[in-house]
């Protein structure tokens, strides 16, 4: 079951982000401890993200120079997020996630100038947001890939390059978080390994399908996953209150 959850979640997550919308609630339904769920999710994302990034790098869909421009920032964000997670309540995390997702969704509808030009270079003004998203990924995670995809697409970066950069940054932010969770004794290998195996499989399938999607399909896939995440956040907040 963990292999299947990892496969489906990462297949969807690589194409549009928001794989955490699938695997985190699914693993909670299995009755697994929340710390084990989050740490296993980071471990599987770390491995699957690198596998899909490597495929796109070999295809020359992005350059290592551009990846290294964003990667260290994402790594630092992941470490800080993992350290900060224990200080923040679950409700505060849900509010933070919901706010960022609403802003990302609004931006995807309001700004219209990104479809005519496809760049492979990351603008400098995007770097602070990459650090913030990396911090959120280390703290909790679901929706961070969607936020990164929105950020890169709104910066005019080509779709496959956006996927490659998002997977590389996810690899590093998750690596930072996994180190923190491992040192705190939260990583359960018996849960993490089958989830990771499914995630790697899903990542490899998705990167081979990515170039078959049109720009219009990509935008609506991103928006649909963002809307679903917002509904999930609202439901979690209402459930917490009652």
Structure write-up:
Helices cover 78% and strands 0% of the residues. The chain is globular and about 45 Å long. By secondary structure, it is an all-alpha fold. It has one domain.
Counted beta strands: 0
Strand content: under 5%
Q: How many individual helices?
A: 10
Head-to-tail CA distance between termini: 31 Å
Secondary structure topology:
Layout: H1 2-16, H2 20-29, H3 34-58, H4 64-84, H5 90-110, H6 127-139, H7 144-154, H8 159-183, H9 189-209, H10 215-241
Helix pairs in contact: 1-2, 1-9, 2-3, 3-8, 3-9, 4-6, 4-8, 5-7, 5-10, 6-7, 6-8, 7-8
Short description:
By secondary structure, the chain is mainly α. The protein has 10 helices and no strands.
Name some characteristics of this structure:
242 residues; mainly alpha; 10 helices; 78% helix; globular
